Amino acid sequence: MAKKKTILSGVKEIARRAKVSIGTVDRVIHDRNGVSPETKKKIQRIIKEMDYQPNLLGRRLATHNKVTTFATLIPEISSETSFWEAPLLGIKRAEDEIRQYNVKIEKYFYDLNEKDSFVKAAKRVLRAKPEGVLIAPSFIDETIDFTNRCKELNIPYVFIDSDIPNQSSLSYIGPELYRSGYSSANLISYLIRSDEGILIVNISKQIETDHHLLRKEDGFRGFFKENNLKNEISKIDITKVKYEEIKKQLDTIFLKKKNIRLIFVTNSRVSYVARYVKENHKNVILIGYDFLDENIKYLAEGVINFLICQKPGEQAYKGIMALYRHVILKLPVEEYMYMPIDVIMKTNYSFYRN
Amino acid sequence: MAKKKTILSGVKEIARRAKVSIGTVDRVIHDRNGVSPETKKKIQRIIKEMDYQPNLLGRRLATHNKVTTFATLIPEISSETSFWEAPLLGIKRAEDEIRQYNVKIEKYFYDLNEKDSFVKAAKRVLRAKPEGVLIAPSFIDETIDFTNRCKELNIPYVFIDSDIPNQSSLSYIGPELYRSGYSSANLISYLIRSDEGILIVNISKQIETDHHLLRKEDGFRGFFKENNLKNEISKIDITKVKYEEIKKQLDTIFLKKKNIRLIFVTNSRVSYVARYVKENHKNVILIGYDFLDENIKYLAEGVINFLICQKPGEQAYKGIMALYRHVILKLPVEEYMYMPIDVIMKTNYSFYRN
DNA sequence: CTGAAAGCGCTTACAG
DNA sequence: CTGAAAGCGCTTACAG
Hints:
2 copies of one chain form a homodimer. The first copy, chain A, has 3 domains: 10-52, 434 Repressor (Amino-terminal Domain); 62-175 and 312-339, Response regulator (Rossmann fold), CATH 3.40.50; 177-309, 3-Layer(aba) Sandwich (Rossmann fold). Chain A has helices at 10-18, 22-29, 37-50, 56-62, 85-98, 115-128, 140-152, 177-189, 211-226, 243-256, 270-279, 293-301, 312-329, and strands at 68-75, 103-110, 133-135, 157-160, 171-174, 197-203, 233-238, 260-265, 285-289, 306-309, 336-338, 342-344. The first copy, chain A, is elongated and about 85 Å long. In chain A, helix 9 links the parallel strand 6 and strand 7 (233-238). Chain A has a 6-stranded parallel β-sheet, sandwiched between helices. In chain A, strands 7-6-8-9-10-12 form a 6-stranded mixed β-sheet, with helices on both faces. With 354 residues, the first copy, chain A, is α/β, with parallel strands linked by helices. In chain A, 41% of the residues are buried. The interface between A and B is medium-sized, with 34 and 34 residues. Chain A binds a DNA duplex (16 and 16 nucleotides) through residues 1, 3, 9-12, 20-24, 26-27, 29-30, 33-36, 39, 54-65.
């Protein structure tokens, strides 16, 4: 077969029509300097006419040697909760997928109980000068300091897990926390009678600053109020994440409130409460958050009845892919990607993808 | 900067080490004829040593002009149910994504109420000689006839929505139906007292052959039996998918069974029952399947309380991507991809991705 | 301001 | 049985 020069496409066809070289076409496509206004206009018109879409394969192949580095800044996996395992896996999954486009991901971690560790890790991130950052913003003020520096340095960043609004992040990928508590309340409204009591349990070393939990609690109470449900709602805040402490506080509240029929734990620490419920033979419905091994164990046993899950692995995966779309592909990225609010029971968890 | 010939990679590096041309390397990689056994062995050894992974970008770019055609064979969207809208959207989403690799998708449809329409559409698919087929196998025997022909012609196929085991399909992507009913029963067990009755409603023109519904019903009953739940379970099969007929049968059963507190509709036709419940002011909990506009409307109103959803759009999307992975990328494909069993309420449906 | 050439990693004829 | 060359669509120096 003789070479068919008849059907050109892409930059070549544009160049042919505009009677210029493909180099000039490339300059216009990327809005680089050094093209006369007339030539530029003509080429832009032709691009419009053809509805030209660049072939990403060609583009990526041609820029093959350019390494792009992203940084991630998330809590380390601790003995208190293995929650952050899933996001890390999501980051690695994204990394595997885009490695072939020469993207490297440098992972930085901080201790959820140490503000300082966040500040230090953030400094190291800045020193590395990545071309994009994924952040789980546990400490609001410190995060804002950090993202302000990113803005100065023109480094795009995405938030996962919880949002800090109005920080011009490229995207937020995670739960809508108010709605998450609201929806949990909806489920719970089916599980109790009007004369039965509810206990809300917040477990976190720094509850005052832990906006996650408070937003969820707000949503929870919002649903009950809006729907005029009159169940007695008690609540305890536990700031020492130790079983003995948790047991003490639960013992106290159970003594005071005899009608507690259901416990709602506002985060992944529900397994501590599960242990208590199991050891003390409490006949309660127990609902908590997150698909962790320790939680699934109690779910399978029937001690935890429902887990609300919001795909933390997917959040991180999508966060990296958003950076990739923005930085490499130069494609638009959704500003908010709210995760579904998933209801997990002992009979459907095996099909769940966290 | 002078050309760095120092660091070669990929086929070039293999060729350099083996002291052959890249053409010969290519022949070995694709197991084509015309390479002496010794050369072949040597090259294979080097490939192993280097842990060589082909660059898919380069590969796809080089084979850019080869058009691959897949066919899809699913029910058309009918006035009875808009269920098949989501899979069609999933197919289109996959098509958009792999269009740049020159994949075309030809879409064939059949009428769920007309076996013959399936047979005819299947014939047209075969005539088109696609390189892969996605099938929603509503009619078992007819599907087996069809897939047998595909096997003869070496055309790979995937099933979505419901499976026909042992038909050597490349993959099944859809619900595990027994487990789906089983899990629904688990949820329902929280919603009723032991003295309250349950009504199972199957709605389909051909219930005897509609393995979907029966498998779900089995799973449902299985849960109640295994957990020793004694609720009275009634059931009706409705084979005329018309509101008047459905109303008549529901009227009859409600007259006979005074303790019905919860209705479980085993497929997406739950909106018919919702209309009945609403118009007749029945005080029941209503649970059904699938994220359809007509169902969501009743969910938002509070007439339907829960919908079980299994991402039909995702099923079709993954089905096409499985064909793409197998046919184009020559990568392995999972034989079973079971969908999660999602619980949708009026408060979380807006975040759901079907 | 513009063009011609080389190259990204691979595949595809073609020649021998 | 093997090699040399052209090409996929794009980007990147370099020369003028």
